[in-house]
Amino acid sequence: MTRTRIAGITVGQSPRTDMTDDLKAALSDTLELVQYGALDDLTLADVRQELAPAAGDEVLVSRMRDGSQVTFSGERVVPLVQARVDQAEREGARAVIVLCTGAFPQLRHRVPLVFPQPLLHSVARALAGDDSVAVVVPETSQVEQARARWSASGVQVDVVAASPYAGIGGVTEAARGLAGSGAAFLCLDCMGFSRAMRDAAREASGLDVLLPRTLVARVVSELLG
């Protein structure tokens, strides 16, 4: 069977071996996932020197190839993401998923270009109605920007931080702190959060959980699969 090629572009380095199994499990078996990384040509020292967030920049958190966490400017990484979109299209991708829940400007593209943030926010807004939603982001430096982004999307949120790159324990602890919060459900607001973390967060918080990596994969499967 000939499978349809789709690209997954991480804002960190590829391959995202921590993400691959979850994505493939949620994607139609008619789709072939090929990964690209915005930071593939950079060292950790390069990222810290060239992409450090300036005052007012959106802060993004991702993963280097060796598994280490890296923090950088959302604005400064955009040209590198655009270069990978261009490359993926040249190499035959029929759709491109940006594997990050951050906010991005409109990028140049010829095939469907899928950003998780608007999908996640739209689904959460539709499900929550007038109720609040609990949100977990990777870094405390992202709490206020996440609150502002979600509010702009019309969703009342309670935001806490726990990094998916520091293990499942921190995610479980953060979720446990949301038990009894009265939130309609919980959103794990980073593509780094795994299905195992979703399950642990659900058990610890007593809340239903939206996971962006599987949500996006299922939407793309509906479109192309």
UniProtKB/TrEMBL annotation:
It comes from the Bacteria. Pfam families: AroM. InterPro entries: Uncharacterised_AroM (IPR010843). This is AroM family protein.
